[in-house]
Amino acid sequence: MSLVLKRSITLDGHKTSVTLEDEFWDALRMMAYDDQTTVASLVGQINHARNKHNLSSAIRVYVLRRFLMRDQQKERPILSTNAAA
Length: 85
Fold this sequence. Notes:
This protein is an alpha+beta fold. The chain has one domain: Ribbon-helix-helix fold (Orthogonal Bundle), CATH 1.10.3990. The chain contains 3 helices and 2 strands; from the N terminus they run E-E-H-H-H. It has helices at residues 22-34, 39-49, 55-73; strands at residues 4-11, 14-21. Helix 1 (22-34) packs across helix 2.
């Protein structure tokens, strides 16, 4: 079972708390490392780009989309939807 962790982060000079499952914190750290930035900076980018979603939800969606985009860039066989089952 995943731990849900609340962490404080400073965005635009204001301290806020973000509650995410441990796996999302790990993914954010990985992505920040890959982007050669900090987790706080990456969360700041997500914060500025989000619509009306709360920040925790926006982060989860961002992480999911990055993983999906990465997966789509890998070569995979094209599966036909017309194939007989």
